[in-house]
Amino acid sequence: PPAAVELCGSLADGTSVSGAAVAGQTPGVDLALRMPRACFLAKDHLNHKYGDKRALYLAVVLRTLRAHPAFAAAELGHAGAGGPAGARPVVTVPPSRALGLRGPLQIIPHAGHDGLARSKLLPSRSNLRAAGDGEAAPTPRYNNRVLEDILMLSAADDVRACVSSNPSLAEAMVLAKVWLMQRHLHRAPGGVSPFQLCLILCHLQGTATLNAEMTPWQMVRAALLYLSHSRGVELQSAASHPLRTAGAVMARGTPKDDMAMSLAAFDVVLLDSSGQLNVLASVSASGFAELVWH
User: Fold this and answer.
1) Which parts of the chain have pLDDT scores under 50?
2) What is the pLDDT of residue 163?
3) Do 81 and 282 contact (CB within 8 A), yes or no?
4) Helices marked H in 14-48 — which ranges?
5) pLDDT tens, residue by residue, 95-114
6) Are strands 88-93 and 105-110 parallel, antiparallel or unpaired?
7) Letter string b/e over residues 241-254, b meaning 16 or more CB atoms within 10 A of that residue's CB
8) Distance, CA of 161 to CA of 167 (rounded, Å)
9) Among 58, 112, 256, 280, which is most buried by a count of CB atoms within 10 Å?
């Protein structure tokens, strides 16, 4: 059984968007299942071992649910930011009157803080190795993807902490999400997801660009103005480098070496409160440029 089951997602932090605001949008329920510590070994961060164990655990969850008649329609799905490349497997349960579900239920397994050693997942570490290889190159994108599962709830806690300190920010997040969804920017490969946009607003509150004296509309306007003037993405006309990015850096107090490695590996960088996870890793230079353009 899971070590813990927790409600997560926009329903938990009060920023869900209804179908009345965005056509075709049905608010769902996200449940995070923390995998037991006993599932992991010391080197499961290497060579996709964690991903394989997560997939196996998810298959067991699906088989167990389908054994109950009320969950017979449960199936494997995908959820995540950045389009298909950023998605990861989840169990999806469609809306059901018997279960009292008006929207879909997503069950998302994760490692939790004690599952894997975070120190082994720094951007400078190499975790994809072949037998007989010499010094392997760093694997910052792979490392960040594993970190996403370890720190998934921490990023959600960051949003809840921002909202609790400034209740008007929750409404601003809903308005910003509606703005993003109505333009379908979140559906493009490499685009910014609604949750990632909330994290950007949290960052702007932390840098005093947004404050509690503002109305939700003023917060959204200030955030859009900030993004429209962002110099994070630079378009180049050179044929050999049609599109380059210097990275939109949205973090403070980060060691220079780790930040330099993140900037070299990712188009856009926004580190969470741990200073380790790039929550915008799935956002491409073109996706960020499109957000800025709008």
Assistant:
1) 83-85, 232-250
2) 92
3) yes
4) none
5) 888 888 888 899 999 998 88
6) antiparallel
7) eeeebebbebbeee
8) 10
9) 280
